[in-house]
Amino acid sequence: MKLIDLSHPLEHGQLNFPWDPKISVVVHNTVTSIGYNITQISMSTHQGTHLDAPFHFYDDGKTLDQMRLEQFYGKTALVDLAPGSALAAKTPLTIEMFKPHAEKFQRGAKIIYRTGWDRQFGTAAYFAEFPTLTLEAAHWMADRKIGMIGMDTPTPSTAWKECHHILLKAGVEIVIVEGLTHLEQL
Fold first, then answer.
1. HSE of 150 in the Cβ direction (CA atoms, 13 Å)?
2. Considering the domain boundaries, does residue 157 fall inside one?
3. Is residue 41 in some structural domain?
4. Which helix (H) or strand (E) holds 110?
5. From CA 104, how far away is CA 86, in angstroms rounded?
6. What is the rounded distance in angstroms from the CA atom of residue 90 to the CA atom of residue 87?
7. What is the CATH number of the domain that holds 105?
8. Which of 25, 76, 94, 139 might form a disulfide with 12, Cβ 3.0–4.6 angstroms?
9. What is the pTM of this model?
């Protein structure tokens, strides 16, 4: 079995959404100073590649540790929206783009969609100009009661609040996986 790391590295001071705290990775002690190495990390829970649970937008929603472990692993379908390339900045991700893959969007399904936008990671454009899921497409996915949706963009949509409310209150415990990379290797 070939393992593929789908996460971005976490680095001191890396770019993120302007309203989120910057990640801090600082050497706290070293082998020379105390006999072993200790590094201190300070970051938000939405740095780099990460998961969103219903609690992210709902006080009464489940946190990741309250969700069933099976929701985080298993057979996952890839929807490649940009085979061999990347979508243009601010491309709307519409229902029409997902409908040819409708058979994958079953109750409880784990879906990852690829736009190629992970190539912009580390640039301001990654957070400002990413391809964005339309609210209609988010409703289409939520209506199918999928169990997980993952993407190679920093968040599903520029209408982030509305889109998260649609996906996280879909009547099932949807997990959102944001900021994936290396999806072309799947």
1. 25
2. yes
3. no
4. strand 110-114
5. 22
6. 8
7. 3.50.30.50
8. 25
9. 0.93
Rounded to 5°, the CA angle 5-175-169 comes to 160
Contacts of 127 (CB under 8 A, 6+ apart): 15, 16, 17, 18, 154
**pLDDT values of the chain reduced to their tens digit, one per residue, 186 residues:** 889 999 999 999 999 888 899 999 999 999 999 999 999 999 998 899 999 999 998 999 899 999 989 888 899 999 999 999 999 999 999 999 999 999 999 999 999 999 999 999 999 999 999 999 999 999 999 999 999 999 999 999 999 999 999 999 867 778 999 999 999 999
- Cβ–Cβ < 8 Å for 17, 161: no
Q: Backbone phi, then psi, for 104, in 5-degree steps?
A: -80, -25
- As a whole number of angstroms, the distance between CA 146 and CA 112 comes to 11
* Alpha carbons 158 and 141: distance in angstroms, whole number: 17
- Alpha-carbon gap, residue 110 to 71, rounded angstroms: 8
In total, how many domains does the chain have? 1
Residue 117: give the domain boundaries: 46-185
Phi, psi of 8, deg, nearest 5: -80, 150
Q: Which residues make Cβ contacts (< 8 Å) with residue 167, sequence separation at least 6?
A: 138, 141, 142, 149, 156, 174, 176
Residue 129 lies in a domain: yes
